[in-house]
Q: What sequence folds into this?
């Protein structure tokens, strides 16, 4: 028996850093959504636990025991076997939670294969702060260090374009170099957005508090934001700790044109279209 699970890119449309815990982890308040582009996990019965990695972004990774896919398998059932294949399409260490999404998809696929109940958000958190939110793949408000998840009002329909300038950004380094760690959260109750313009206008008042620190580490991120702006995106921002940036578009052909313009002008960048949030 083989089971497949999709591991979509996670996008932080907002990312407010609101404090720091005694153990060094930062408190966040983030509006998280998932795109239609992502990795695939396939699991099949086997006596031994193994991982094979393929796909266009496989080069950035090795199937070492610390791969999040293998860590997720060991967390679910230490000592059990499965033949796992990861098709890697998301760039590694790029702020769109590839490793966390892979871990969450592995937990889903293996709990089906092994007929076990899915792990709790608390267990998932031991694999990474982004793993709990990636378990649900629905839009969510993420607080705490990533374990406090809540629903968000229905988002208007939109398209999204993702751009990564092919530079890896280290999440711990970005957090460590933050100067302001006690920033205001989003409002207690998120508004009920009427339509895309009202959502875009609300986003304009939000922040990614990691952006400045990430741009200091990799100045090309500022070029990516400008390039996305030049395509006519309604809103541009950086996801997570970078370097991937996103542009939001109306649900029409604009995002298709933007994507092909970016891919033509910046052949060395990774460009993907949602296609839908
Ligand atoms: C920045 C985000 O992408 C926003 O969604 C995530 O919070 C990062 O999630 P992640 O990559 O799964 O993070 P982890 O693998 O748990 O942590 C990597 C490192 O980032 C820092 N880290 C991460 C999450 C958090 N809330 N506070 C932190 O300070 C810590 O230094 C930690 O050692
Ligand atoms: N299956 C995996 N896919 C990607 N990275 C992995 C995986 N397993 C382990 N890693 C390691 O995890 C680190 C973070 O990679 P990942 O792609 O999840 O970062 P990210 O996109 O910045 O995540 P986030 O947005 O959650 O901070 C990398 O240094 C990578 O070597």
A:
């Amino acid at each position: 028996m083989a089971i497949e699970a999709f591991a979509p890119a996670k996008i932080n449309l907002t990312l407010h850093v609101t404090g720091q815990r005694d153990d060094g982890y930062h408190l966040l308040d983030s509006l998280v959504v998932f795109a239609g582009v992502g990795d695939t996990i396939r699991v099949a019965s086997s006596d031994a636990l193994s991982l094979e990695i393929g796909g266009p972004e496989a080069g950035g990774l090795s199937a070492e025991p610390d791969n999040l896919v293998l860590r997720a398998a060991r967390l679910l059932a230490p000592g059990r076997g499965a033949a796992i294949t990861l098709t890697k399409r998301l760039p590694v260490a790029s702020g769109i939670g590839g490793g966390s999404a892979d871990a969450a998809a592995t937990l889903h696929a293996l709990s089906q294969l092994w007929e076990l109940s899915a792990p709790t958000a608390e267990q998932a958190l031991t694999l990474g702060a982004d793993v709990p939110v990636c378990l649900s793949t629905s839009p969510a408000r993420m607080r705490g260090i990533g374990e406090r998840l809540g629903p968000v009002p229905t988002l208007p329909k939109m398209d999204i374009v993702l751009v990564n300038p092919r530079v890896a950004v280290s999440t711990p380094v970005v957090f460590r170099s933050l100067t302001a760690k006690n920033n205001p959260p989003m409002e207690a109750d998120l508004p009920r957005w009427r339509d895309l313009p009202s959502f875009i206008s609300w986003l304009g008042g939000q922040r990614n508090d990691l952006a400045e620190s990430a741009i200091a580490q990799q100045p090309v991120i500022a070029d990516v934001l400008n390039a996305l702006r030049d395509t006519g995106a309604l809103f541009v921002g950086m996801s997570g700790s970078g370097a991937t940036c996103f542009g939001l578009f109306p649900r029409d052909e604009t995002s298709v044109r933007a994507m092909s313009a970016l891919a033509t002008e910046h052949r060395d960048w990774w460009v993907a279209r949602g296609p839908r949030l």
